[in-house]
Structure formats: structure tokens, C-alpha cells
Amino acid sequence: MIRMYFNTQVRFGAGVIDTLPKELKLLGLNRPLLVTDPGLVAAGLAARVQALLPDGCPVFSDLPANPATAHVEAAVACFREAGCDSIVALGGGSAIDLAKGVALMATHPGELRDYDTMKVIRKQGRAIGPQAAPLIAIPTTAGTGSEVANSALVIVGPGEKILLSNNHLLPKLAIADPELTLSLPRALTAGTGMDALSHCIESLCCVNENPPVKAVSVDGAARVWANIRTAVREPGNLDARSELLMGAIEAGMTMANGLGAVHALSHALGGLPSPQLHHGTVNAVLLPAVMEFNRPYCGAHYARLHTAFGLAPGEDVVDAIRALNRELGMPAGLAAMGFGEALIPAVAEAALRDINALTNPVRPSAEQFAAMLQGSL
Q1: In what order do the strands lie in the sheet with 173-176?
Q2: CA-based end-to-end distance of the chain
Q3: Which of 374, 375, 206 has the alpha carbon at shortest distance from 297?
Q4: Residue 5 has pLDDT above 50, yes or no
Q5: Residues contacting 107, CB < 8 A, separation 6+
Q6: Residues in Cβ contact with 316 at an 8 Å cutoff, skipping those fewer than 6 apart
Q7: Which domain holds residue 322?
Q8: CATH code of residue 107
Q9: What pLDDT was estimated at residue 3?
Q10: pLDDT for res 257
Q11: pTM
Q12: DSSP assignment, residue 122?
């Protein structure tokens, strides 16, 4: 077992899920709410984890692809009714994001939207305090990195997705067991893996200078690049799954340094009531157009990626990303995912308001965001 200490403690390795009872005792947590999704309930993974919890711990699994305020409120009601003192989140980014919303709203007054990071920055919102409920995150995908990140995304209204970001939302512990990712379907392996790759590339290229973080970004990108094809092609390959999960954790470590236009756009797209879009897959589709836009400002960073990916001399990094998308079976564009051209102006305006627009290598205008969307159709 590999032990890593960042902002969140991590237990990493095949079989480490069995350490959960011991870890709960070490943290003094006696009655956690298990937050998971219907797919993991059907697959039996939720029952496996519930069996490791103290007797009688409740389960909340009414979780869609993109959690919204109503789901947070329902889970908070379950938390309170059962007298819970903590949360165990089992799943991908949606489950862990929902769990962070519960950790916040079970212990803080007001409405969820009051804690929107952009409102807090403008001194119009409420600060998140240390009373947030303790959270243990158990990822079942190698993608979002939410298990080691201090942020969460929640839909609070039609076309309105807010970012919660505060170190008090960091999981106390992440239990990263690559065996739990073995049953992930190929399409989700590809989409979540490309989410991790987009995190690494955007954190590397963002305007905030942080050499250690950027070094981790490059290493994470290299791990994802080297292993995502094998993990998709050979779902039972534990070595590839382990490397992909480590790359996703590294990607999650780097997110707080800032992301960029890919995430500004995908957050705006994720807030749409229709079509319902998978976040990581959207990032994969957007990545080439955004990288082309950022190319004038990212030459040295793209050179590092060129080396990390082991590309041949003269091979272009952005073209290599396009080729990887095709190899993984990503959609040909946003239109193939049900996104219509008529939605471009509203999504471009929403992206302009996203916090990740501030840390892109250069801040795009609404017209430039629209051009990126057009180029991703």
C-alpha cells in the first residue's frame, strides 16, 4: 500500500477498501451516511462498502449524472434523520460532489447558492466554515480527482451550475482502490480518463505559476496518456487501472491551482437541462479547440507534454489529442451528443462567468468562447 499525504490523506492500492473500518475508528467517525449511485447499488459495490460500515448506517443513492439542489436537500434530510456524524462517498465525481454538498448544508445555514465561490469572491456569499461534516471519499472511476480536491459542482437552477470551493470541503481521507474501477464500462473509462487528462493539461497551462503543481500535472498527464488505451481495451488490466487512477489523483491534486476554458465551457454545458452531457466526455471533445486557441501562450507547456507523451519529432500535441479521442471512440463533436448550435450564445455567456475563465492562459471573450464551441460541433 502506498501512503501519500497531500491536503487529503490517501490510501492507495489493490484491496485497501478493506481498511475502511480501521480508518473510521482512527477518525472517530461512528455513523456515516453512505452516498452512492444506483449503478453501484445494482453492481453490488455499495453493499460491499456498507458491510464495512457500522451496523445501521443509512444509504443515499438517488443520484443523477449531475447532482442538483434537490438531491443535496434529500440527502441532508437522510443525514439528519439518521443522526449521522459523517459521510462516506462511493462513486465518481457526482457522488463525491453530492457528498460535499451534504457536508456543507448539513452543518451550515442558508441556501446552497449562498456558498457559490464566485459570490464569495465578490463578498456577496457565505463563507464555508470548519464545521462541515467529515467526508471519506472512495472513487470508483479514474477521472474527476474529486477525492483529493476541495471543490464540488452542483446545479442550482436551469442552466445554472455553481462551484463550491473551500479547504473545509476536502475529504479527510481518500481510499483509492484500483480494484473498484475494474467493472467500469469502456465508455466511462474513456470519458473519465479524458477528464483527468484535461485537468492535467489545463492546470499545467493555467496562468497561476506553481512549479511543484505543474510537475505533478505533467506526471499525471503522462500516466493517463500511457495507460488509458489499455484500460479501455483491457478493462481487467489492474496495472493499467492502477496507473490511470494514480494519474487521476495527481490531476485532482493540481485542480486547485486553476483550470481553464475547457472547464469553463463544460461547466456551462453541464448546467443545461437538456441535453444531459457527461462531463469528462465533453472535456475530451472541447480539448482540441481550446488547445488551439491557447497555443500562442502555451508553447513551452506543449513542449513538455510532447516529451511526456513520447511523441515523435514534428508530431503535434493537439493533433495527438484528436487522434486519441478517435481511438477511444469519443463522439465526433458536440452535435453528435445532442448539442444544438442555437445554444452557443447562452453557453458562451455562462462560460464567461465561470471562475475557470479567469485562469485560462488568456481570458477569452464571449465571442471567442462561441468560436471554441463552434469548432467543437
Answers
A1: 2-5, 9-12, 173-176, 135-139, 86-91, 32-35, 59-60
A2: 44
A3: 206
A4: no
A5: 129, 131, 132, 133
A6: none
A7: 184-375
A8: 3.40.50.1970
A9: 53
A10: 86
A11: 0.93
A12: T
